[in-house]
Amino acid sequence: MLRTRLRRPGAALGTAIAALAAGGLVAVAFAGCGIVTPGPVSTVGEVDFDRPLAIPPLADSTVDAAGTRVFTLDAQAGTTEFEPGEASGTWGFNGSYLGPTLVAELGEHIRVDVTNSLDEPTTVHWHGMHLPPEMDGGPHQMVAPDASWSPEWDIDQQAATLWYHPHPHGETEDHVARGLAGMFLLHDEHERSLGLPGEYGVDDIPVIVQDTGLSAEGELETKQRGYAGGLGDELIVNGTRSPYLEVGDELVRLRLLNASTARSYAFAWSDDRPIELIATDGGLLEASVPLDQVRLSPGERAEVLLRVEPGERLVLQSQMTPEIAGLVGPVADTNGGSDAFDVLEVRAADTLEAAPDVPAQLNTIADFDEADVVTTRRFELSDSFEINGESMDMGRVDETVTVDTLERWVVENATQVPHSFHVHDVQFRIATIDGEAPPPELAGWKDTIFTEPETEYELLMRFEDYTDTDTPYMYHCHLLWHEDQGMMGQFAVVEPGQSATMTGGTHHEH
Ligand SMILES: [Cu+2]
């Protein structure tokens, strides 16, 4: 925040006044709803770490005669005991909470047979995946109760930590909060050649972080709500309350996924050692980046490496501050911007498997040439859940993009409140933040960014391969309550000279 302020001399006083106004706005917005806005929370030092971290199972798959790898997901209701003997009603894929981890390889053709066993419609969106819009699982690909949907596509992007979750318009926060989410890991030859930790659940660990409201007895409760949305006052990881992870290798890879609906985290180690970031949403960085903390807003992923000594214990924490959150005053305090959490204790065995050194160069990321930009679009995020003054309309295509051309999307959060921005189908690069080059942790491939107040992000992206005049992709704020409130727009990718043809009557909802 301070960094941003310094770049914009003269803005500071206005910021302080506006922040008070925004705080007042939040208070007014919730007055009369009986909703108490959350205040600062800390669980540091209060977590017992007395349960082994659950590892989501790897999804079974079969390869059919045509060479297609086929997965099966069943969205279903069930019960989960976050504390033994205290059952909470939850939703999951192929189980009662979260879903299995799907794994696929660059070049594979895959299909996922999705069944909806819930008693209401939902969708499954493949977050971060490059794929045709009809396979995307957005709000136009609703799956009715007892119906099935079988999207298929080619895996045509580099190794990355992606994920899947529902995307029904107006209900996404609820469906994700109930437990519908899972990881989708992509591998490729290059990644394997690096010798990074890669044994799932052993030295390559999924870490799905969610905040939740649990009663003293351990039953799910309604969360308090800030402007950002529902904010739980404790964390679960992979659905496990109070988790520890035993490791037997001296080098461990943690795949951090913020699957929370509203809360952002600042992941850091309890002994203040640097957290070594190696990959962001869309894949490996060019080189490991040592950071004080890794900030992740909802939907963002980070892969980090941890080197441990025999017998040591340390704790993954979230150490958010208003400065890291990019929020000020009451906006920070009521939106998780001052909250601290113990997340996960790592326990190293007394004898550890040796691990090779990690290559200095992890990836090659060619920069886009801004001279190739064909179209510049602006997206202004409001504090009333609008983008460019419009609320989501399922029948309106907001932007029409010509396939295989370089686009510059300028996203400005002109407000005092937190938002984020996610674009379907592509991985993009951040060219500038308030006119300056991004820090190294934001210089790789991204599909979701946190948008700090009063900050402008210039993104470069190219939509390739899949054109469809009749089915759009989405861009939206990934604070899920904001998305549900209409903070979302639609874009069609078309051949040169084509126009989007979708009209209000063609929703493809069945
Ligand atoms: Cu938002």
Automatic annotation (TrEMBL):
<dbReference type="InterPro" id="IPR002355">
    <property type="entry name" value="Cu_oxidase_Cu_BS"/>
</dbReference>
<protein>
    <submittedName>
        <fullName>Multicopper oxidase family protein</fullName>
    </submittedName>
</protein>
<feature type="signal peptide">
    <location>
        <begin position="1"/>
        <end position="21"/>
    </location>
</feature>
<dbReference type="InterPro" id="IPR008972">
    <property type="entry name" value="Cupredoxin"/>
</dbReference>
<dbReference type="Pfam" id="PF07731">
    <property type="entry name" value="Cu-oxidase_2"/>
</dbReference>
<dbReference type="InterPro" id="IPR011707">
    <property type="entry name" value="Cu-oxidase-like_N"/>
</dbReference>
<feature type="domain" description="Plastocyanin-like">
    <location>
        <begin position="376"/>
        <end position="494"/>
    </location>
</feature>
<dbReference type="InterPro" id="IPR011706">
    <property type="entry name" value="Cu-oxidase_C"/>
</dbReference>
<dbReference type="Pfam" id="PF07732">
    <property type="entry name" value="Cu-oxidase_3"/>
</dbReference>
<comment type="similarity">
    <text>Belongs to the multicopper oxidase family.</text>
</comment>
<keyword id="KW-0560">Oxidoreductase</keyword>
<keyword id="KW-0479">Metal-binding</keyword>
<feature type="domain" description="Plastocyanin-like">
    <location>
        <begin position="76"/>
        <end position="189"/>
    </location>
</feature>
<keyword id="KW-0732">Signal</keyword>
<dbReference type="InterPro" id="IPR045087">
    <property type="entry name" value="Cu-oxidase_fam"/>
</dbReference>
